[in-house]
Amino acid sequence: MLVGMGHHTTEHDDHHDHGDGLHEDLVRMASRRDALRIFGAGGAAGLLAALGASPAARAAAKVSSVVPTETAGPYPGDGSNGPDVLDDAGIVRHDIRRSFGSSRTLAGGVPLRVNLTVLKASADYAPLAGAAIYLWHADRLGRYSLYSSGVTDENYLRGIAKTNSSGTAWFTTIFPGCYSGRWPHIHFEVYRSVARATSDGPILKTSQIALPKSVAEKVYATSAYTGSASNLSRISLSSDNVFRDDKAIHQLATVTGSVARGFVANLTIGV
Question: Tens digits of per-residue pLDDT, 30-40?
């Protein structure tokens, strides 16, 4: 059973955070160098954004207000409603597609990289470095690991990542399915550090990321996302019970890419 039922104090913020290390650094440096050489500074910016490059290589979205607080929903996996995985070994990771622990099940679907940049409102919206983002969402069939029938013994599509000097935490995941009654979305919680995220808070912000309809329609046209196209056709940002207050004006991600190559979602928020 993969369900954890309590938090334990973590001594260091990076106790669990192995990241991608040298490989990630080399890929990033090569990507930036090659893009500049081939396309020049102007053309490289767009290419790097599409590749999910570091925030320093792309212009940050303008943020002048705090992102709305939203419900964590019934499937948080943070101990507030049943299962708690935040203190489990393996939860701090960038790639959240596979379950960790006793199961290694891989959640299939169209690849999606999420770059979430956090700015501190009380510090003139400066990057919030060293914070932790806990991110989770439904699988391609609209199921939540730990909770939904058939996946209660899985913990895929959940993970914690640390924000870098630009305030950005990134995740490799899949495009979530659209289940009945909700717009396509991703949940997240912001903590001041990884240590606090893995030891019961406090939570700085709980909110959700909305995904663009035009992109969702392309993803849901594939056979892997059974039922999502029909569910999407019956919901709108105006009728969604989370986003309807302001049509997700502060929560709608910018998404680039394709079904064949995968997508990159970028969102900058103030907390």
Answer: 334 333 333 33
Cα separation, 54 vs 49, in Å, equals 8
Q: How far is CA 253 from the centre of its chain?
A: 11
Query: 75: buried, middle or exposed (CB in 10 Å: 19+, 13-18, 0-12)?
Result: buried
Q: Which domains does the chain have, with CATH numbers?
A: 61-270 (2.60.130.10)
pLDDT of residue 260: 97
Q: Which residue type does 240 have?
A: D
Q: What are 211-236's pLDDT values in tens digits?
A: 999 999 999 999 999 999 999 999 99
Rg (alpha carbons) of the chain, rounded to whole number: 18
What's the pTM value of the predicted model, to 2 decimals?
Answer: 0.80
Residues whose CB is less than 8 angstroms from the CB of residue 271 and which lie 6 or more positions away in sequence, other chains included: 66, 67, 118, 119, 120, 121, 128, 190, 204, 205
Q: How are beta strands 126-127 and 111-120 bridged, if at all?
A: antiparallel
Entry field: residues in the chain: 271
